[in-house]
Amino acid sequence: MSSEFQEVIFDEFIELASEKVPVESLTLETYISTENMIPNKGGIEVASSLPNSKTVNKFVKGDTLFSNIRTYFEKVHFADFSGGASPDVLIFRTKSAQKLLPEYLYYIASNKDFIDFTVRTSKGAKMPRGDKGAIQGHKLLLPPLSTQQRISDILRTLDKKITLNRQINQTLEAMAQAMFKSWFVDFEPVKAKMQALENSGTEDDANLAAMQAISGKTADQLATLKTQHPDQYQQLHHTASLFPSAMQDSELGEIPAGWEVKSLDTMAHYQNGLALQKFRPEDENDFLPVVKIAQLKKGFTDGEEKASPNINPSCIIDDGDVVFSWSGTLVVDSWCGGKAALNQHLFKVTSDDHPKWFYYYFTKHHLDEFQRIAQAKAVTMGHIKREHLKKALCAVPDSDLIAHLGQTIKPLLDKAVAVRLENRTLTELRDTLLPKLLSGELQISTEDVA
Length: 450
What we know:
4-stranded mixed beta sheet, globular, Adenine-n6-DNA-methyltransferase TaqI, Chain A, domain 2, Restriction endonuclease, alpha+beta, endonuclease, 4-stranded antiparallel beta sheet
């Protein structure tokens, strides 16, 4: 430890803020509870509802919010706005910014040493909560203000890049889902063709209308594209020509003429995971981390459980694989947490007939209905059955059209996976540096900071 670091008591420099704010003054965007805090220091989501109480604890910009339920989920957030928080979210506030920077306080609360301390001293078995008294008596190492600033700057640079990548991913996902819904659920290119023909247009007019529906461009913008990028224009023209200009009746309702109806379970293979407590590693140095629903939600393995690497290969997942939790919390995701063993209650989704993006977005398309079915079950762990996969119908065009549309959607999904893998690397770097910087083991100088 560097000599400039001094051991201090948490309560000497940090207060647990308890000032109240009326709930009626809050919005879904300014209310934070443990439910809308994202694990692994992943930030926050918009709240789904406001509490029934008249008041909640008030936080201000610069406070650190710390979820005090099951603190091993590492739900820690640096407030960049003022609002209100539920009682199970502790509000850490520096008593003097001249002695402890708010940004540095956030990294103290994010440090694994502090998280582990709160886990060890938690009370309660079913829903363990951090012990406020123990937290207030926790010992910290505190460097001078200038060192706090340099350390915060280094870690904040990594956090900003991680946050930017998350925003990029959200944009990519929204774009891909909007395209998929337009083409395969709402059939907008087909309807655009039909409307053009109903208005006495020619086949060329119908194709142009479909091109607009596919690309989101106006006729003038397409004319410019034709002049400046003729190859792109011709590719779009050919893709539009593959859409039919009529609808047909089906068990799904009206679908584009020539398309067929398939159920999810015939379009893709949903491989259930294993009861991995029966497949422990033969060698403690040769194992696969286990992915359960909790790890899928977090997006990474945490080493809580290990499995033999010699399990059925169809129950091993790796980066980019589609995973669907069909019990408890229903989630569909592209796994980006590295090679792992898949536990029961999770499907690994694959297909020999259709590309990954196609069955991924069709599974996501049916997720709302699956969640409704699971929530309706009067059991602790709501779930769906394979019969529900059979009842989930999809309108499927020929392989030629799927291949052409894949040239647009597949790169978005590939980019999203690549960005998440970059974030995994950045997160590992941040979490490696964090305890070393805060303990003084890794010393920095002014020259270390750009």
